[in-house]
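Check my protein:
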Amino acid sequence: MTATGFESVRAVADAILYEGYLLYPYRRSSAKNRIRWQFGVLTPRSWADAHGLDDTSVAGSAESWWQQTECLLEAPEDAAVACRLRFLQVQRRTVERRRPDGTFEETGALGAHLPFDEAVPREFDFAAPLAELLAGERRFTVRAPAGAEREPVEGGRITRRRLDVDAIVTLSAARCGPPGNAAPSPLYRLRIRVENGHAADRAAASRDEALRWSLLAAHTMAAVVDGAFVSLLDPPQWAERAARECANVHAFPVLAGPEGARGIVLSSPILLYDHPRVAPESPGDLHDATEIDEILSLRTMTLTDAEKREARATDPRAAEILDRVDGMPPEVFERLHGAVRSLGPLPGPQEREPDRTPWWDPGADASVSPDTDAVTVDGVALSRGSRVRLRPRAHGTDPQDRFLDGRTAVVEAVLLDVDDACHLAVSLEDDPAAELNRWYGRFRYFAPDEVEPLADDRSVR
């Protein structure tokens, strides 16, 4: 796989790389921008050990000194495997005032310039034949080098400094055991392990200091020539057991590229669907993929002139957002108002209730009662207090729900939405915060076909 192959997923990969880099209102003084770098942070091992960072979950928001990707690959042994590691390297920007004697001193501001931590994108490519990876692991070491640049400005200068960031990438592969059904071709488990390779003892460093030797927003891509990857979110039946055995730590791989393509996987610290893409209506990155472009653009327009000046002085990417929003043509802004991705049939006349109570007044409709209503699943009436096992759908659901597959839960309410679709509000049985979430009314929601009634259908209250 050439670099051009990876370019087909760059837009999504860049969104991951800069997710949370700088949040609205894009000012350095904003509380949201004082604690940064939330995903895919791989710190020096000494610092991670000193702070007890031993989490081994899939959560990419958990800081660690390593991450691991395991994915399934159908290919002959002579297939070529390529991998790309991408991350951000902190670049500290300081502003220095020129003294009368010609020397410089750091200052908190210099005209329209402010000190701030920027970041430099880094990427490294590796490749190996599958046969070599089956024979033994391949270990690669890389370094994003230290550096410094100075830029003269009126009254002084701007200095940008970076420290060495070291990484170790280990590639290996193993044959999968016999599947439940005959596989169409040999199946292998590909492992990509990324470690922070910084060797010095940084246990006593502050987080801000440790981040200067860290990989930020670390993620990987893998590609195969003459082979294909298998979806871990929706594996074929013959690969289900092998998919369950994949151990992914602080990252999770999904199929990338056009719908139906299986030549590339993107392993991200942020959970994604298979074949993720950036909405074609989006005119540019806002560094907050959980937001709606239209709302965030409108908010940005409301910033005062003083706030915009600070945002522009904070970071060039903030200035780029302001320029784009302030100069957005009406036709581009109109596209942000919404788009229909799929259509479904409307219910027929016999399926509609002609005199239904308005949906916006939940207390006025005596025909529904979430606390007492029931829905029948596999011949069992489920209502508040029923115990179920969660079986999330592979498609059309939140990808995070897939990691709850097999967990047991208690039904808290049976709900109908405005389209008369039924939903079960549930609490996980082994969630230590279940009582608190119940008090707040914070539940997880599943369709009836995403749960299995448990034989022991007792109420917890």
Summary: Residues 316-326 form the longest helix (11 residues). DSSP finds eleven helices and 20 strands in the chain.
